[in-house]
Amino acid sequence: MFYVPPSLLVLALAATLQPSFAQQGEPAKPGEAEATREPAVETAGPADEAAKPAKKPEPGPELNYVLGARVHWQPEYAGSNRYSAGLTPIWAFQWGRWHFSASGGTTLLGFGKEVRGDGASTDLIRDSRFRLGVSLRIDTGRDSSKADTTAGLDDVKRTLRGRVYASYSITPDWLLSGALSQDLLGHEGGLIGVADLGWRLRQSPRSEFTAGVGLTAGNARYMGSYFGISPAASDRTGLPVYTPGTGLRDFHAGVGWTRQLSDHWIVFSGAGGNYLLGPAAASPLTEKRFGGQFSVGLAYRD
């Protein structure tokens, strides 16, 4: 359906590392060149040099960070009717235009304004309304033995994902965003695409409420890894062989609330759900098409 070559993601990321060059001055207007030749420029003496104020060094990029944890309750696996609870650490660091985050920590740096996703990311283009960037992150894959729903299925190897993301502010409170995420190591992770429409209502300078809806799709390799059943897995589980193709994975919606308790401490919560579609819904692994999630957490932001 769609494929982003890994080389394109690497080249896009490399482009952000190119050194910038100083802009040249504007050319002199007619007549100005002659005027600047008279009188002759005098060489400044030691006294003049001493009188000049020392140049202040330009400030470097500012480092911002957030550290915290959240308690979550969610299905063991997309399509499972079994739920589990857990505690997940959250962190994010921002240095200039570079971001490093895990478990959605980057959203807390900007109170829900960021759409980068986890991993190491940088913006290639950014203005008041449009943003385009790239990121890299570790995808932990799937250890099928850790959930009853997936026991006996083939594991999905850990891999490195490259991601291209973009967003456009329709209004100050409405944000349209999308991303493509590709397995760069060929570990059967495939390609994932997502499109979202988000809405933000800032209730006060210290709190805000957010809501959003979106669609997720995957290519045949991704769908086969997470929703397919190989002949070997069929023999182990007794489930029929299933080879899904490219298509939509789910429709998802959610709401979130963030509250700044003090200059540094933040409490946050979220609730949402996803409804499986297409090849994911047709999989023999899918016990229930709808799954809900809830989380609440506390974080420290500098």
Automatic annotation (TrEMBL):
Superkingdom of source: Bacteria
Signal sequence interval, chain numbering: 1-22
UniProt keyword Hydrolase, yes or no: no
InterPro entries in the record: MipA
Record's keyword terms, sorted: Cell outer membrane, Membrane, Signal
Cellular compartment(s): Cell outer membrane
Ranges of biased composition (kind: Basic and acidic residues): 29-40, 49-59
Chain spans, region Disordered: 23-61
Pfam families the record matches: MipA (PF06629)
Family statement: Belongs to the MipA/OmpV family.
Protein name: MipA/OmpV family protein
